[in-house]
Design brief:
binds magnesium ion, binds adenosine-5'-diphosphate, 16 helices, three-stranded antiparallel β-sheet, alpha+beta, 15 strands, 3 domains, 482 residues
Length: 482
Amino acid sequence: MTWETVIGLEIHVQLATKTKIFSGASTAFGAEPNTQACAVDLGLPGVLPVVNEEAINKAIMFGLGIDAEINKVNVFERKNYFYPDLPKGYQTTQLEKPIVGAGNVEITLKDGSTKTVRIHHAHLEEDAGKSLHEDYHGMSGIDLNRAGTPLIEIVTEPDMRNAEEAVAFAKKLHSIVTTLGICDGDMSQGSMRFDVNVSVRLKGQEELGTRTETKNLNSFKFMEAAILKEVERQIDLIEDDGKVIQETRLYNGDTGEARSMRSKEEANDYRYFPCPDLLPVVIEDSRLERLRSQLPEMPDAKKARFVSDFDLSEVDAEILSGDQATAAFFEAAAKTSGDAKLASNWVLGEVSKSLNASNIEIAESPVSADMLAGLIARIKDNTISGKIAKQVFEALWNGEGKDADEVIEKKGLKQVTDTGAIEAMIDEVLTANAQQVENYRAAPPEKRGKMIGFFVGQAMKASKGKANPGMVNQILKKKLDS
Ligand code: ADP
Ligand code: MG
């Protein structure tokens, strides 16, 4: 039997506002516990919440960014439940009238194909505090600093069919919200948290299978691992005559273990009702138009431009346009050097390899876009070969010079293009390898092409990589064939 996986995601995105969604308390990360929760965030008697205009604007920006419908009349509702990190006894959220309606997000898969994931809606809500279980023996610590931080919860249709699609979607969403500047995208600090709904069904079956929801995954890697594990668990269960029960599950990224948290039967009745303290927020057309005019170039548009203006492949353009800082770095290097193909190769190659190895962001790269452009210029004008360029790049990365020219000069890496010098070097190589020369000349012409590689290698080695490879090839051929 062949199974098909069905995945729908719910994503909590922290909006990058200075203050909370209904109070003036700071949203800054990392403060001493409980120093940034005010009376409104705690829902103390007598307080009145006031909606943060910026939170509304940022939620609208998301809707405009994915070309979704924006609901003009917004109502906030109370979702009632008890939990230690929610001292108000209710979360203020949206139910019937979410700010963002249906929209679409296009994803690109590794094989270059694209797929549309439908967004069901996105609603505004406040975050809860945090329960800390580790450092307090036999007790839990409660930090309410996060309480009242503005979130949008984005809900997709069950359109994804495997972990790769889910991760591609998650990355695309990350790229969209960071490009819009509505979220800092720092997943390690919980700025984006993914809940994955997973079910399986027989291929060809129309009806959806029973789903489980694994909550609060905060890295792409954990998300992929949690999905793969859950799909396997469900298939094993069904094939052993068992049944998937609808439940909420937890996945521990550090141990790779998953467990059930609560079943549907234990689910709360949230007794939603419109918050009597908050008036409906009406969004006027003038506000929509003003925000629309502030939209940056979105990742899809940027990608299309990279393909048409710079002749990049779809896959390369997708990666380079996915992150605002990477896109800007590439574009600057491409324009300054005048060679987009080389700029793309270097950003996707040495630059990203070095960033990964040093575990830093492109904004902190010790080799700037200008420095990379300078290096590319020296490859293009034949001052250095591509191979030597890697040495120069490494030196620049390690701070051994302010630009490529300085490194090339200091280390004497300038390519040898003097015909006389190359000829002398080749003569030495040919003398030292007389037997191979004889073999070459005795070989039929169709075999020589391959054999010449040996001499090129020897000559390049003799020049410590500095001889111009094209000239070496040409002169060798002339000498060997004569
Ligand atoms: P609820 O009303 O219980 O919150 P929703 O219908 O709103 O459920 O769906 C919540 C999320 O679960 C959505 O992202 C949706 O795409 C996804 N989902 C719903 N049913 C399934 C299913 N059978 N398999 C996988 N995902 C599903
Ligand atoms: Mg729902």
